[in-house]
Amino acid sequence: MDNLYSDKIMEHFRNPKNLGEIEDADGVGTVGNPNCGDVMKMYIKIKNDKIADIKFQTLGCGAAIASSSIATELVKGKSLDEALKLSSREIAEQMGKFPPAKYHCSVLAEEGIKKAIEDYRSKKK
Amino acid sequence: MKKIYLDHAATTPVDPEVIKAMLPYFSSKFGNASSVYSFGQEARAAVDSARHKIARFLNCKSTEIVFTSGGSESDNLAIKGVIDASEIKKPHVITSAFEHHAVLDTIKELERDGRIQATYIKPNRDGVIKVADIERAIRKNTVLVSIMYVNNEIGTVQPIREIGKMIERANTRRIMNHELGIMNKTHNSELKLHNSEKNAGRIFFHTDAVQAAEYFDMNVDYLHVDLLTMTAHKIYGPKGIGLLYIRSGVPIKHQIVGGGQEYKKRAGTENVAGIVGMAKAIEIIQNPKSEYRNPKQKESNPKHEIRKLREKLINGLLKIPNSRLNGSREYRSPSNVNISFMNAEGESILLNLDMEGIAASTGSACTSGSLEPSHVLLSMGRTPEECHGSVRFTLGHETTEEEIDKVLEVLPLIIEKLRRMSPFK
């Protein structure tokens, strides 16, 4: 399987960062669906318009789990506006080598974070 | 870490005896079997002797065996060959919805090109095709039925002999109707042409027996088949060599041209070493003494032993909550285990198993390349979620009870870990 994924992906797959659930989350975003095989759920805790804490739960392949883990690391501590700028391309670059067919995993991670922020902002209104 | 290989339906290690038999045909007896001098004649003799041995295994004539590059080529030759040789304008083909892609995609392509009509028979929930469903699908222009012997993903065994006999009865009826039609015409010249006169002649029956060769009866007369696909690398032989059995009198158009080899049905210099290796592999699985001998030269592993290990693995894995066996337990290859785990994704399961040194396979979309879940599991009514969480283990000669115990020790923990990571509870 070493030829399939980069060492970084395998490391995040083995020991995912920010895995779990935030019970009193300020925003939650669920993307994907069980039909296509990948479902990501992002939980965020906001302090002073910054992502103070972020956690994820993912049902999916190695690339889906690793992209969730990598994306949460990239936005943790960032302001909401900065976090919204995170693109799937940046996540994919951070992941390193993976099969091109798995690019949608990085898209899911981007969308999951955006959806959680939208959820937080819509609740605040 | 000790590696545990449980993917024998993908491919098998080459038996050391097979390698030994093949070796002389690379460098010392390297001749072209078509050459008249002694180098060539050595190669010719080896090919002839191998063909003879394999013919005995299949209970057919040597001239009915065409060597190919493997299962996919044999399936292509069987289907395209029969269609190309058919005299009717738009022939009809019946197959199952859960064939190997070498059969399914060949038929779909011919259908897309407007060259044939096709019917895809769905298996029942246990992954078995009903003979009556095929019988009902037969039309006047049906020329070919192609049904696999043992399904490669779920290991279910199809009623090939019963389908073969049913097709023979249908063929007899066609001939009788045809003769009746001619008689009617002679009695009354104004009588309209009987429909059966426009029928397609015989229906030919092809089976892809790639996964069956080791454990099931391969006698082509017993099976009542006209065409049969086999490959060497699933039975401890080399990759790149297979065959198509073509019953005498079955019209077939060659797909590869450029030489008179294989009775003009498949051009190309004979893969002498491969052919010799395939014959040796067949000899080993046939011989009761050497049968199921362990390639690692450990203790023997007879068929019933493999079945026992399979049962142990199935029983153990079904103890994991929300798990389900895919495919009939009764009509099943002794080597196949295929189980779905809800809320755990197949590729993630495989990656975790790989970290423990265990090699298996999955029907999840994530490993298919096309991102489509297993067409086999979908055809028998499984949900996409069940496909994504499916894992296939296929046991072989060298599989030991300790290896099965290791899977039963680590897989429940892997499933538990992945379910904890999932947003679903």
TrEMBL record, chain A:
The record's annotation in Gene3D superfamilies points to: 3.90.1010.10
Question: Which residue range or ranges hold the NIF system FeS cluster assembly NifU N-terminal domain?
Answer: 5-125
Question: Which CDD domains does this chain map to?
Answer: IscU_like (cd06664)
Q: Which domain of life is it from?
A: Bacteria
Signal sequence span per UniProt? none
Q: Which Pfam families match?
A: NifU_N
Q: Which InterPro entries match?
A: NIF_FeS_clus_asmbl_NifU-like, NIF_FeS_clus_asmbl_NifU_N
- What's a single GO MF annotation on this record? iron ion binding
GO biological processes: iron-sulfur cluster assembly
| Stated name of the protein | Fe-S cluster assembly scaffold protein NifU
UniProtKB/TrEMBL annotation, chain B:
* PROSITE patterns associated with the record: AA_TRANSFER_CLASS_5
Question: What cofactor does this chain's UniProt record say it requires?
Answer: pyridoxal 5'-phosphate
Please list the residue ranges annotated as the Aminotransferase class V domain: 4-171, 199-407
- GO MF annotation terms: cysteine desulfurase activity; iron-sulfur cluster binding; metal ion binding
Reactions catalysed, as given in the entry = (sulfur carrier)-H + L-cysteine = (sulfur carrier)-SH + L-alanine
Annotated coiled-coil positions are none
- InterPro entries with a match to the protein in the record: Aminotrans_V_dom, Aminotrans_V_PyrdxlP_BS, Cysteine_dSase, PyrdxlP-dep_Trfase, PyrdxlP-dep_Trfase_major, PyrdxlP-dep_Trfase_small
Q: Which UniProt keywords apply?
A: Iron, Iron-sulfur, Metal-binding, Pyridoxal phosphate, Transferase
Q: What is its EC number?
A: 2.8.1.7
Q: List, alphabetically, the PANTHER family matched.
A: CYSTEINE DESULFURASE (PTHR11601:SF34), CYSTEINE DESULFURYLASE FAMILY MEMBER (PTHR11601)
UniProt protein name: cysteine desulfurase
Q: From what organism does this protein derive?
A: Candidatus Berkelbacteria bacterium CG_4_8_14_3_um_filter_42_13
